[in-house]
Every structure is written in structure tokens, then in C-alpha cells.
Amino acid sequence: MPISIKSDREIELMKEAGRILAITHEELSKALRPGMTTYDIDKLGEEIIRSYGCIPSFLNYQGYPASICVSVNNEVVHGIPSKKHFIKEGDIVSLDAGVIYKGYHSDAARTHGIGHISDEAAKLIRVTRECFDEACHVVKEGAHIGDISRAVQEHAEKNGFSVVRDLVGHGVGTSLHEAPEVPNFVQKRRGARLQAGMTLAIEPMINAGAFHVKWLDDDWTVVTADGSLSAHYENTVLVTKDGCELLSVQ
Ligand code: MF3
Ligand code: CO
Hints:
- The protein is an alpha+beta fold.
- It has helices at about 10-30, 40-50, 120-140, 145-160; strands at about 55, 70, 75, 90-100, 105-115, 160-165, 170, 180, 200, 205, 215, 220-225, 230, 235-240, 245.
- It is built from four helices and 15 strands.
């Protein structure tokens, strides 16, 4: 599939989808507390998204049963909210969500610590966010997808962490997942050349232990194979002539 170049009008719509998603993440981060269930988080997130007249894009996506992916501790991504799963002090909780505004998608994820968390957990959350920032620094017209991959992998590994290989970032626009794939690890090919007007979801998924992951029997929840902690940070961004503009911001 060719990589779509968005018009100014499309970019305006994606900015609005991104702004509403950033607000949703901020509201969720303020609401998080020990004793909540992951179901409570999902319901609140869905309510916020719908209050802006938007559609939560993950709900029913390939059968996914919720609006917010809630992935706790060793869960990497795509955790399924549950009335039985109470979050507790010391957990790290990754929230991933998508918004559709007038047919245009935004996609973003944040990882939060609940109350006091271990030094290792705090470092993992910080480094995962920094991996995203490093990736953003290399994005501009003329760079390649592989430059993003290298920036993420180098920063994660320099800090003693590993990069998940079985899941990747992606183009985003009129669909949640568009071309190209945006891996967080270096491959032999440098990948597509970036052009102004491309919109990407850059999403480092970083493990404290080894990079290997497995799928639970629910066919959604991805967990670290060794049980180590994992963090996720994602924004929808626009490639410009000389840089990277965040779309999932307020
Ligand atoms: N945010 C995920 C991604 O970036 C998509 C979640 S798919 C869902 O690719 F089905 F779990 F919603
Ligand atoms: Co994504």
C-alpha cells in the first residue's frame, strides 16, 4: 500500500482527533487510583471520548471488546479491561486509546505509575517516553522509517532495556492502521523515505527484561515472556519539511 499524504484539511481533522485524545489521556491520568478496576478506566475513557461526539476506534476493532487497552505491569499492550482486575499501589498501567473525529483517527498511549513505584519501574516509564522523543527528533522529510527504529532501539538498549519486535507502529489517518509499518528495532532495509504530510503513530514498547513476548489465551493480551515489566508510549505525529509535529496534544 502507498503511504498517504494528508491535505491541510485532513491534517486539521487529525489535529482535532488528536487534541480530544490528549484530553482523554489527561483526564484518565487524573482519575487513576488504587482500587479502581481496569473496567472503570475503560468506561471513563469511553465516556470522555463520546462526550466530544467522537468514536472510540478500538471498540470492536477486529473484535477487541473495549475502548481503552489497559495493560498492567508485565502486560505489554492490548490488555482487556475487566471488572475483576483492581489496580494497586506500585503498579504501572499502560493506557492506549484511539479517537475517530469526522472519519479521521488519532492513536496515543501513556504509561502511568500508581502511587509509589519501584526505581526500575520509574526508569522504564521515563526511558520509554524518551525513546519516543528521540524518534521524533529524527523525523523530517527525507529521513527514513529506519531512522526512527534506530533512535528508539539505541536509547532503550543504552539504558539496559529491550525493544518489543512482534508489534510495530504504523501510519494512521482514515484508518487506524495504514502503511507504513514503523518498527522500533533496526532491520536490514532502511524503510520508506518520509515525506511532509505523512502521519504516523510512533509507539515504542519497551521491556525491562528480554524482548520476547507471548499472547494470552484471550488472543489479545500481549505479555513479556519473562514476566518483566513493560511500558508503552505513543503519539500520532505529522512529518513536516523540517521536523515532527505532535498531533495528539492539547
Ligand atoms: N493502539 C493499538 C495500535 O497502536 C491498536 C489497538 S488495537 C485494539 O496498534 F484492537 F486493541 F484496539
Ligand atoms: Co498504534
